[in-house]
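Dear colleague,

Thank you for sharing your sequence with our group. We've completed the structure prediction you requested, and as agreed, I am returning the results in plain text so they can be pasted directly into your records. Please verify that the sequence below matches your submission; if there's any discrepancy, let me know and we will rerun it promptly.
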Amino acid sequence: MAPQILVASNRGPVSYVPRADGTLDARRGGGGLVSGLSAIGPDAGALWVCAALSDGDREAVRRGIAEPGVRMLDIDAATHAAAYNGIANSVLWFVHHMLYQTPLEPVYDAEFRRQWDAYRLYNRAFAAALAAEADRGATVIIQDYHLALAPGMLRELRPDLRIGHFSHTPWAPPEYFRMLPDDIAEELLLGMLGADRLGFLTSRWRRAFQDCCQAVLGHYDGMAYWPRDQEPSFEYRIPGHQRRRTYLGVHGLGADADFLRERSRRADVDERMAALREQIGPDRKTIVRVDRTELSKNIVRGLLAYRTLLEQHPEWRERVVHLAFAYPSRQDLPVYREYTARVSQLADEINAEYGRDGWTPVILHVEDDFARSLAAYRLADVALVNPIRDGMNLVAKEVPVVSDRGCALVLSREAGAYEELRDEAVTVNPYDVTGTAEALHEALTMPTAERDERTKRLAAAATALPPQQWFLDQLHALRELG
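Please find the predicted structure tokens below.
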């Protein structure tokens, strides 16, 4: 029976790793989308369409190996690389996170146009697969910036479907978004507006999308925006097409409290806690950060702020340790390799300048270890979350849920989570290193009772929309459009 519920994303819920005997080991992934989709139950007949990302994945497709409820697309490796690294991660991610060094970049040249063609092909492959698989009148929820064109392409192929799209990143303001070539900016927005409903993590990112549509597409006949409907919507008519309407919603993904609390009490986490306590030393406070070495996470300025704290507040020397877990990300891109190297270099410099026998100021770990991350959450006196720009940032929501003894949250105002957590956090401008150092001092000196109360309120706000409900809310909203 053809599926009535379909999800599409670049990365799927399973990956395949070759064994020595030539067989393939299927490894299930985690994350909010995996948890969310589980909420509809195994009998719903849902289908997850994703890309084959590794040689093991592609071999599984060629052998006809598949997990129930998953269709993996073996898109040409060169096409995927150009679409994923060339456009999604090197253009769209940089635009929405406002990461360009504008005196030198971006440069939209012939190579960019070649990569954009690959991005179109990649999105078209997903649209074709969804169109082929979906039952009549099925509901399709497409995920993220990798597949921004797919809603419009799918609409052309299957106008009977109910189509949603969810953005897990921020959305750039018009003045930054319009750095894209005019025709590309228009194509991107129209691709998104092919959906019946678009979802965003915060109202700020939704408003930015609205502003981009009005700035870029305002010349279209009948382009209008209704802010007072049941939820905001756009109505527009493109020449040669019928009038359409797209609704815009907000769903702030929360932490999965039940899973985190259970997982953080397992034996492997206790073992990591014991090892970390030995590294930290007795009677010392901890400042914890857990991030990928993603440019937008602002790890370098966080380390500079910690160095400034030790410089300007010498009373903290030998009394505090910074647990910095910086897991390498996108190391196939030179700028990410350089950034990761700078993080390690700066941690070494701080340790060389301030370290003493029995006290290592920065304990840096770069090997991804989820159990160790949870151990750090439990040990944290202060959590530092200072991104330049972030769609949500689940670390800011997870630490208060797991914390053993209460944790003060130092939070960038540019994180999506700020919209929900700002009343209980110590807010920072992510570019202000001295301001962040003072915020760390404030957090370290926060009275225990106040810290405990703030942690409780942070945990309540952080878990208001857990992954299962987050997905169901999108599904219900899309189906109820009528």
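Summary note from our side: The CA atoms of residues 152 and 190 lie 7 Å apart.

Kind regards,
the structure core
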